[in-house]
Amino acid sequence: MTIFLQNIISGLETGALYALAALGLVLIFRTSDVINFAQGDIAMFSTFFGYRIFEKYMSYPLAVILALLFAVGLGYVLERVFLRKALKLGIINKIIITMGMLMIIQGLTVIFYGTEDYYLRKAIEMDNFDIAGIIIQPNALFIIFLTLGIVILFNYLLKNTKFGISIRTTAEDEETARLMGIPVGKVYSRSWMIATALGALAGILVAPKTQVSISMMLDIHLKSFIAAVVGGFSSFFGPVVGGFLIGVADNLVGYYWSLDWKTAIVYGILLITLIIKPAGIFGKVVRKKV
Amino acid sequence: MIKIQSKVIKTIILAIIVIIIVGIAPFKTSTITILSTVLIYGIAAMGYNVLLGYAGQISLGHAAFIGLGAYVSAYATDVMGIPFLFAVLLSGIIPIILGLILGGVALRLEGHYLAIATLGFGVTVQQLFKVLTKFTNGFAGRIAPSAYIFGNKIKGVGYLIMLIMITTFLAIIIENILKTKTGRAFIAMRDSEHAAKAMGIDIVKYKLIAFSISAFYAGIAGSLYMHLVKYTQPDVWGSVLSINILAMVVIGGLTSVGGSILGAAFIVLMPHLVAGIPYVNTIPSASIIITGIVIVIIIRFMPMGLITFVNRFKRRVTNVRG
Amino acid sequence: MLEVKDLSISFGGLKAVDQLNFIVPEGCIYGLIGPNGAGKTTVFNMISRFYTPDEGSVLFLENELLDYKIHEIIALGLVRTFQNVEIIKNISVMDNLLIGLHHQMDTNFFTEVLGLAKKKEKDFHERARDILKFLGLEDFENEIAGAQPYGIQKLIELGRTLVTNPKMIILDEPAAGMNHSETKSLGILIKKINKELGITILLVEHDMDLVMSVCNKITVINFGKKIAEGTPSEIRNNIEVQKAYLGGE
After folding, report:
1. CB-based contact (8 Å) between C50 and chain A?
2. For chain B, what is the radius of gyration of the CA atoms?
3. Using CB atoms, which residue from A99, A108, A270 is nearest to B243?
4. Does C16 contact chain B (CB < 8 Å)?
């Protein structure tokens, strides 16, 4: 039982990171109508930046803040340069553009930071404690509650601020948003900026496990897509729930079933969702007009 | 100048000319290998072009099919002793099964969902390559013997000439398919699924055909790669390769068979070109950055790909001849 | 030729079409009209099998259409156009018409692979050319479809339906986006298709002038229910119809 609970907590920890990344993904998707396949690499680039700051100034909080700012700036630039002019292009073309972006960012990371792996410390470096036989890592709890906090904050933002409402309106129906005088361009850039910041945060938090490396975001990247699909692209908090679910499922399957096959099994979950309820657990079905 | 009508005849003559050049010219071994690699990727790209360019199915895990072809070929020749040419054919056929599975999944998906499903598919299959060590040898790596045709070892220039013949043959087949009913059905399906259905096009059938063709070509490419390089391990068959195949087709020209080979040449040759440019060659990741930039530029400004330059040049040349 | 019986469908609890009945006789030009939101397009989509009704049946030449999938309808001789003119924009006019011939091409995959389908391709090209001539589009054969003006694009789509040798064509608001003179030409063309090619026509339309001048018989629906059926002059004088159009809009 204790091991089971430990796995759950572990699952929630990785799930939190999936949730953050998935939230960013869906935010960009619902406003700019594109799946940002470069998300993981943007996060990775930002994490490298953060690592360098940490290395130089030995201050973790400073590194995190600057890394997030870096991500925000990067998100703004990428959206303006690559996607803004490409809005009218079809889905396939937009996806291909994000792939091009991905390549450029990977290349830039290598130029600035080389190909070595680096170790970045955990956010909370405290000893584990023991509750009724369950070993709990403070860092894990921190990540989980931080994510929940961000999600709650985001939810508040969406419902109660002018900006949040403009996001929701643009996501619902862009034409109407424009007609209502909502600065859709600003909504795009800000969505990207938030999304890349969320990705960078996930990167920084996962770095202790994966090392700061070129391939560090691969797992989160892929799982964030699955989380978004399972949770449902048409809602903002579906993917968050999806992220936690996938994190826990991934851990439980890996522990109780098979480490080797866990990727295949989690992918199987994705496929089953796509077949049974393609709109995701919380998604709404949109009937196509003929 | 004799006016040659049939495109097939023209292609074959071009191939013969290339074979003669390759046979006579004193190319270095490294050049031969590079050219061989271009053709191998070109074959995979031609198949992928059918899927992405013609049928409009965005598939981000295509490396899985090429890898499967490679492993099937290695296993068939090394472990089962199947003759080379049969093994190549088998390497094309078995991935079709995988292609039908992915195609089946693709039936209900479009756009972003399809992209995500295929991305996961590619990752999963690569994971299977790592895990199914009885078949693939996992990280220890799989070896394959050299190619033998009727007892003669085929390597170096001979292998390249064989590749030229196979590529030409496969290119002609693809052209034949795409210029007729099936090709038009793909395009209709891609651009307007409603109209396609109303005109009697069975979308299920054609999606499965598109996935099958692309899987077949990918498998053959994988097999030919395997017997050129003679060693592989699972890391090769991941997202990087899938993205490169996508890049080849996009850069060369979606819906152009010649474009696929051009795109393959671009991706394969570019790192070598970069190595020759003074300042740029000190940047370790210059190739990938340039590829990324080129992709974005092509999609934004020249969606028909680099092949438009070739076509314009051809037109100018034939106009001069009058 | 076409018999719609008790056709009904609901969307999310709202009944969009309610027990609709009408018969389109062979050789007729039949109109289906009604105010905005009356359910015309929904009926249209049910007949062409893009939607599946909750109740009722659609008989075409004794075939129960509800037993068929969308892409199987064309083989029965029934073909449709789209309000959004869904031609394939990046290919030539000829290729667009050849897509219409898809279901008649019985070349199989392997003959194509071996390049043996060339002769049959030529025959199909000829057939398409005949239709282009009928529509006055011979000069446009190799032009890119998407580059043509809207009116020509509509003709291309019409051409695509004509090459299929249909027994009946259903037109989805063909006059949409057309001005007065274009609509008049369209009316003449519809009559020509009906008379010279012997094709039955079902017209779902908003433009009253076109409907009145071209149709032999009309059914009017509102809120998914039939409110009147008859000849153009009967419909013009029908009080219920007048109320529906004046009241609803």
Report:
1. yes
2. 20
3. A99
4. no
Cβ distance of C74 and B200 shorter than 8 Å: yes
Specify the CATH number of the domain C1-77+166-249.
Answer: 3.40.50.300
Name the residue of chain B whose CA is nearest to A227's CA.
B116
* Residue B261 covered by a domain: no
Q: Is A290 on the interface with B (CB under 8 A)?
A: yes
* Cβ-based contacts of C98 with chain B (< 8 Å): 184
d(CA C131, CA B305): 34
With an 8 Å Cβ cutoff, are B185 and C102 in contact?
A: yes
A108 contacts on B by Cβ (under 8 Å): 285, 289
All partners of chain A with 3 or more CB pairs under 8 angstroms: B, C
Which of B181, B184, B194, B213 best tests the C interface by mutation, with the highest count of C CBs <10 A?
A: B181
Chain B residue numbers with beta carbons less than 8 Å from the beta carbon of C103 are 199-201
CB atoms within 10 A of CB C193: 22
Dist CA A135 CA A222 (whole Å): 29
pLDDT at site B254: 77
Q: Searching chain A, which residue's CA lies closest to the CA of residue B119?
A: A222
Mind telling me how many Å the CA of B131 is from chain A's nearest CA? 6
Instruction: Check: CB of residue B188 under 8 Å from CB of residue C91.
Output: no
Residue B316 has pLDDT above 70, yes or no: no
| Alpha-carbon span B27 to B49, nearest angstrom | 30
Establish if A132 touches chain B: CB-CB under 8 angstroms. Answer: no
* Domain ranges within chain A, ordered by starting residue: 13-214
Range of the domain at B126: 7-238
Q: What is the pLDDT of residue C248?
A: 46
From-to residues of CATH 3.40.50.300 in chain C: 1-77+166-249
Helix (H, G, I), strand (E, B) or coil at C107: coil
Give the tokens for residue C135: 């529509």
Those residues with Cβ within 8 angstroms of residue B253's Cβ, 6 or more apart along the chain or in another chain: B53, B259, B260, B262, B263, B304, B305, B306, B307, B308
Asked if residue B241 lies in contact with residue B66, where contact means CB atoms within 8 angstroms, the answer is yes
Nearest chain A residue to C86, by CA? A290
Going residue by residue through chain C (249 aa), what tens digit of pLDDT does each one get?
A: 888 888 888 887 788 888 889 899 998 999 998 887 778 888 989 999 999 999 899 999 888 988 999 999 999 999 999 988 889 988 899 999 999 988 888 767 777 777 676 777 888 889 999 999 988 888 888 888 888 888 889 999 999 999 988 999 999 988 888 888 888 889 999 999 999 888 999 999 888 888 888 998 999 988 888 888 888 888 888 887 877 777 644
Q: How many domains in chain B?
A: 1
Which residues in chain B are contacts of C113 at CB distance < 8 A? 173, 176-177
Please give the model's pTM, rounded to 2 decimal places: 0.88
Reported as type and span, the H/E element at residue C169 is strand C168-172
- Specify if B272 maps to a domain: no
Give the confidence band of B322 by pLDDT, cuts at 50, 70, 90. Answer: very low
Q: Which residues in chain B touch residue A101, judged by CB atoms under 8 angstroms apart?
A: 292, 296
Cα(A136)–Cα(A141) distance, integer angstroms = 8
Segment B236-271, tens digit of pLDDT: 999 889 989 998 998 888 777 888 999 999 999 988
Cα(B40)–Cα(B49) distance, rounded to whole angstroms? 14
